[in-house]
Amino acid sequence: MISDDRWGIVYCPKHERFRRASRWERIEKCLHDNGVEYDFVQSESMGSVDRLVRMLINNGYKTIVIVGGDSALNDAVNCLMQVDKSVRDTIALGVIPNGLMNDFAHFWGYRENDVEQTVKWLKQRRIRRIDLGCVRYTNAHGEPCHRYFLNCVNIGLIAAIMNLRRQTRHFFGSRTLSFVFSFLLMVFQRMEYKMCLKINSDVIKRNVMTVCVGNATGYGQTPNAVPYNGMLDVSVVYHPEMAQLFEGFYLFVRGKFLNHRSVHPYRTDKVEIVESGRALVGVDGRLMNRMMGGFSITVTQEVVNFIMPG
Q1: How far is CA 76 from CA 65, 86, 149, 181, 215, in A?
Q2: What is d(CA 200, CA 187) in angstroms, rounded to the nearest whole number?
Q3: Which segments of 138-286 does DSSP mark as H helices, in order?
Q4: 8 with 56: CB under 8 angstroms?
Q5: Is 134 helix (H, G, I), strand (E, B) or coil?
Q6: Which of 130, 160, 158, 166 lies closest to 14, judged by CA?
Q7: How far apart are CA 9 and CA 61, in angstroms?
Q8: What's the pLDDT tens digit per position in 171-208?
Q9: Residue 159 and residue 203: Cα distance in Å, rounded?
Q10: In this predicted structure, what is the pLDDT of residue 210?
Q11: Mean pLDDT computed over every residue of the chain
Q12: Per-residue pLDDT for 235 more than 90?
């Protein structure tokens, strides 16, 4: 029988050659120094987090901590949403940021370089019930599917940049440098898509550069979104002139994305994407490759127990 105080940890190592062992050793030392009882399993591939979280749930762990980034957290919450509500309500999800993108952890104030503080906060087990966004779509076989998300859904240019950024981060190491390089590469690619969107009472039917639907900060594109008000923030960006594009990038980096004249913000509980012009779609930073036709995005209120800083 697993003690309720014992943590189940899923460790998702970064794809780096030299720092894997030292990173885990530092985390392990912090756990021991704070008297945390735990068992840990290591994720070996992108698809293994779901299986490992399910194993921890089936073995009775009440605190599950993901040592990873946005994609790993996404896998964890989608696994939690597959179990009975009576079971899910007894489980608290925590994070020690360790991914290529840790936007959801940053929203709460968790930082990669402060493992000691993160472990102390997690040990306090201060829980808040949070919302999840949900994408409902049809797959290549014509079957209805859905995917939950913590942070955001990106459609268009930013989805392509985030995909490229995941790759370039291996070379640059720096979050900002990889984004700058990815942005410069994508400037010379196709930057607008013929879309049809329904948001509240508005129907948007025109060329759009990128759309972000945020349950949280959306990598800076929905900076006012919070995962506990039952609403989604939406930023629709029309195609600006080249000078405005670089101005928009500057504002994005400075955290003032909504101030750009080409950005049109909305707040809603549902978005319908009738047509997306074959734009790439990213969910919590990971591309969705099997979506066919239109899709909808809604919010599901207060469904996951998340451990927030004390």
Answers
A1: 9, 17, 10, 30, 16
A2: 31
A3: 157-172, 175-187, 242-253
A4: yes
A5: strand
A6: 166
A7: 10
A8: 444 555 545 554 555 555 557 889 999 999 999 999 88
A9: 22
A10: 85
A11: 86
A12: yes
3-state helix, strand, coil in the chain (%, to 5): 35, 35, 35
Q: How many whole angstroms separate alpha carbon 169 and alpha carbon 102?
A: 13
Cβ-based neighbour number of residue 85 at 10 Å: 9
Please give the pLDDT value at position 187. Answer: 54
pTM tops 0.85: yes
Looking at residue 305, its amino acid is N
Can you give the pLDDT at residue 201?
96
List phi, psi (to 5°) of 140. Answer: -65, -20
Q: How far is CA 46 from the centre of its chain?
A: 14
Q: What is the largest CA-CA distance in the chain?
A: 62
The residue behind tokens 């923030």 is: 233
Write out 73-124 in H/E/C secondary structure.
HHHHHHHHCCCCHHHHCCCEEEEEECCCCCHHHHHHCCCCCCHHHHHHHHHH
CA-CA distance, 187 to 27, in Å (whole number)? 39
Cα→Cα distances 205→236, 272, 304, Å: 12, 12, 35
d(CA 280, CA 288): 8
Q: Is 244 helix (H, G, I), strand (E, B) or coil?
A: helix
Token pair for 298: 């809604």
C-alpha separations of 136 from 96, 211, 230 in Å: 29, 17, 17
Q: 53: helix, coil or strand?
A: helix
Least trusted range by pLDDT, from 40-49, 64-73, 233-242, 244-253: 244-253
